[in-house]
Amino acid sequence: MQSASRIVSSEAEELILVDADDNEIGFCSKAECHDDGGVLHRAFSVFLFNPSGELLLQQRADGKRLWPGYWSNTCCSHPRRGESMETATERRLDDELNVAADLEFVYKFSYQADFGDLGAEHELCHVFLGRIDALPAANASEVKALDFVSREALDAAFETNPAVYTPWFKLEWQALNDIHADRLAPYLAGRA
Fold first, then answer.
1. Could you tell me the domains of the chain?
2. Up-side HSE of residue 84: CA atoms within 13 Å toward CB?
3. CA-CA distance, 36 to 79, in Å (whole number)?
4. Fewest CB atoms within 10 Å of the CB: 7, 37, 101, 152?
């Protein structure tokens, strides 16, 4: 098993800049991509479900520049310069959770969200679904806490306390439920 708190990313790593159609147009450091209002770059979000149909959430580490301590979907990050989406998702699942999973691509969308004076996300995000059998071992430098939640509990939490969740997670969960419900349903049904 890998170190429980190894450093796996830096503000200097080069991310992939894209246009509105997800065509690669250049590269920029992670720091610069998130400065001011952000620069549109390629990203991904992974949603992993257990055999009971519960979604694995992560609470972002307190050391994160943007949305530290907020709850989010299972894993979210960026492919680096020269890296395919498949390689990037595999790398980050291992980096953050010490786990591997088969993923299904569902959709992609663009969003922009400001985090006060500290910067912003401006991403063209690819959204994936997958399964996991048990609670993984989180990398403490990336993840503060993990929790499996049912759809009902998550929907209720979004209603009563939406401010503790990342903006992209709320947008993605709504789209998965409203637009891609047929793709989401088998994961919610679980295998139990």
1. 14-189 (3.90.79.10)
2. 3
3. 21
4. 152
Each residue of 98-142: pLDDT tens digit? 999 999 999 999 999 988 888 888 999 999 999 999 889 898 888
What sign does the dihedral 62-65-68-71 (CA atoms) show?
A: negative
Q: Can you tell me the distance from the alpha carbon of 174 to that of 47, in angstroms, rounded to the nearest whole number? A: 13
Placement of tokens 């959430």 in the chain: 57
CA distance 102 to 128: 10
Pick from 16-20, 94-98, 117-121, 172-176: least confident: 117-121
Please tell me the distance from the alpha carbon of residue 19 to that of residue 67, in angstroms, as a whole number. 25
**One-letter amino acid for residue 114 of the chain:** D
Give the catalytic positions in this structure.
76, 123
77: buried, middle or exposed (CB in 10 Å: 19+, 13-18, 0-12)?
A: buried
Residues 144 and 151: beta-carbon distance below 8 Å: no
pLDDT of 173 above 90: yes
